[in-house]
Amino acid sequence: MTTAQTRELDVQPTPLALLLLGREADPRSERGVECPGDLPSPSDPDLVERARAAKEKLGDKVFVLGHHYQRDEVIQFADVTGDSFKLARDAAARPQAEYIVFCGVHFMAESADILTGDEQKVVLPDLAAGCSMADMATAEQVAECWDVLTEAGVAEQVVPVSYMNSSADIKAFTGKHGGTICTSSNARRALDWAFEQGEKVLFLPDQHLGRNTAVRDMGMSLEDCVVYNPHKPNGGLTADELRAAKMILWRGHCSVHGRFSLDSVNDVRERIPGVNVLVHPECKHEVVAAADHVGSTEYIIKTLEAAPAGSKWAIGTELNLVRRLANRFASEGKEIVFLDKTVCFCSTMNRIDLPHLVWALESLAEGNLVNRIEVDKETEAFAKLALERMLALP
Ligand code: SF4
Predict the structure, then answer these.
(1) Tally of CA atoms within 13 A in the half-sphere of 220 that contains its CB
(2) What is the DSSP string of 151-185?
(3) The pTM is what?
(4) Residue 366: per-residue pLDDT
(5) How do residues 24-71 score in pLDDT, each as one tens digit?
(6) How far is the CA of 165 from the centre of ligand 1 (A)?
(7) How distant, in Å, are the alpha carbons of 66, 87, 112, 129, 366 from that of 58?
(8) Does residue 297 have a known ligand-binding role?
(9) How far is the CA of 347 from the centre of ligand 1 (A)?
């Protein structure tokens, strides 16, 4: 954020070091509130034992989900790990689990609540674990965008496609307007489907995934894409530009993947001759275009599993996952490095630390339901419709 923008918003940016440590909140990018109750001290030497004991006491009543980007100290207690959609489905397949503790961020817990049964309660250990990308598209902004599209006479030709990394409100908007959800694994299939339903796609909220899929995978040109900026009148676009576009990309991005640059790719190729560059499609288009392989977190893991001994890899995704993969495959002689030279954790993912997990598990074990994430029924119904369209994709 520039200083001018900060002044305009009248908020002070949180010092980066505090965000990286998982402390403090950035009011621009994070939803939620401070965690209620007494958190155990991070220096408590018994935290691991306390988490284990509380989980054991809860038994089958609790199911802990761990997103790939979570810290190791938390991942060790996950019953299952994966990307957000896989985790939500895993939770739905465990109806006997009354409590789903989601070690991830807010929109993931919402998706789990949408896909699990009414009797299952989803808990987010720290309510301030939001996602800056998901927060870049609010329900009001998207409704305004639809008015702009209607005014330009194109709304009827537009099919919304929303990335899983969006709030329940945005998923519901998508369901209501005949669209579908996509993940980074099935974005191509979702767009193929959408272009069978209409002539244009409104892609929310990650411009990079939308652009990369349209241009790299589907052969569209960069000129087929326009970017709708919710902070400008009419999205900063003329009616003619909207009429000419095939892909209307929401101006959102992931603050973690957005940090990788073409320089990061060139630099690592110079430092490590023969390195394979493997990046997530949330990276900028020039990074994706310069990479050797592009794919979701599941794709990244599978590619490294299949890689031969002695191969070298630079990975462009969140650092917790890259570090874990580097450790896991070191014994197989695979050299895995982080694509960028600077630290790149997801600060909001990192909010779920061991003290918050211990606090959530112990509270549940004592019969106190804390930090429940519950989507209202109407939103849930429309969001589910969009998710079901994704499940039905060929
Ligand atoms: S890595 Fe990016 S998209 Fe994922 S939770 Fe963090 S900010 Fe959101």
Answers:
(1) 23
(2) HTT-GGGEEEEEESSS-HHHHHHHHHTT-EEE-TT
(3) 0.88
(4) 96
(5) 444 444 444 455 668 999 999 999 999 999 999 999 999 999 999 999
(6) 8
(7) 17, 20, 20, 24, 9
(8) yes
(9) 9
Mutate to test the pocket of ligand 1, among 29, 69, 131 (most ligand atoms within 8 A of CB): 131
- Which pLDDT belongs to residue 9? 34
Tell me what pLDDT residue 10 has: 35
What pLDDT digit, counting tens, does each position of 206-222 carry?
999 999 999 999 999 99
* Per-domain residue ranges of the chain: 30-131+348-376, 134-254, 257-338
Instruction: Pick the residue whose CA is nearest to atom 6 on ligand 1.
Output: 346
**Which of 29, 209, 349 to mutate to test ligand 1, by most ligand atoms within 8 A of the CB atom?**
349
Pairing of strands 121-123, 372-373: antiparallel
Collapsed DSSP state (helix, strand, coil) of residue 329: helix
* CA 79/CA 94 separation, integer angstroms: 11
Is 281 annotated as a binding-site member?
Answer: yes
When pLDDT is averaged across residues 86-93 and rounded to a whole number, the result is: 88
For domain 134-254, give the fold: Rossmann fold (3.40.50)
Distance 157 CA to ligand 1 centre (A): 30
**Are 30-131+348-376 and 257-338 equal in CATH topology?**
yes
Give 294 Cα–ligand 1 centroid separation in angstroms: 17
pLDDT at 112 over 80: yes
Instruction: Tell which one of 19, 250, 254 to mutate to probe ligand 1, the residue whose CB is within 8 A of the most ligand atoms.
Output: 254
- pLDDT band at residue 394, thresholds of 50, 70 and 90? confident
| Tokens describing residue 389 | 């369209």
**CATH architecture for residues 30-131+348-376:** 3-Layer(aba) Sandwich (3.40)
The ligand 1 atom at the shortest distance from the C-alpha of residue 134 is 8
| 164 marked ligand binding residue | yes
Q: What does each C-alpha distance from 171 to 28, 134, 150, 161 come to in angstroms?
A: 21, 11, 20, 9
Would you tell me which CATH number, out of the four given (3.20.20.70, 3.40.50.10800, 3.90.226.10, 3.40.50.410), belongs to the domain 257-338? 3.40.50.10800
